[in-house]
Amino acid sequence: MAKIDTIVSDMRQNANGIKFNDLVKVCTHYFGGPRQEGTSHKVYKMPWQGDPRVNIQEKKGYGKPDQVKQVLKAIDKLEEEQ
Predict the structure, then answer these.
(1) pLDDT at position 47, please?
(2) Phi, psi dihedral angles at 62 (to 5 degrees)
(3) What are the residues whose beta carbons fall under 8 Å from the beta carbon of 2, sequence distance 6 or more?
(4) Distance of CA 5 to the CA centre of its chain
(5) Do the bridges between strand 53-59 and strand 41-45 make them parallel or antiparallel, or are there none, so unpaired?
(6) I want to staple 15 with a disulfide (CB 3.0 to 4.6 A). Which of 1, 43, 47, 68 is the partner?
(7) Mean pLDDT per 10-residue segment, the chain (82 residues)
(8) CA distances from 29 to 24, 52, 64, 71, 80 (A)
(9) What single string gives the DSSP state of each residue in the chain?
(10) Using an 8 Å Cβ cutoff, are 71 and 53 in contact?
């Protein structure tokens, strides 16, 4: 868990420098395995009502900054509901 906490902390400090593989680790930890993978996108279903998703995509080995921010918002909402 310490590794995940470190990655999330790094994400909060700088959304631009997050390796895609680290972003996948965080998403899988918080949201479970992706609903879709095998393409350039990985799609994670959120555990709350409706059909919300987080979609992440690799760009030159890194996560896209806007998607990193989307993941952080989803983590905050998840933690808020617990």
Answers:
(1) 77
(2) -120, 160
(3) none
(4) 13
(5) antiparallel
(6) 68
(7) 89 93 94 80 82 87 94 91 75
(8) 8, 17, 19, 12, 16
(9) -HHHHHHHHHHHH-GGG-BHHHHHHHHHHHH-S-SB-SSSEEEEE-SSSS--EEEEEEETTEE-HHHHHHHHHHHHHHHHH-
(10) no
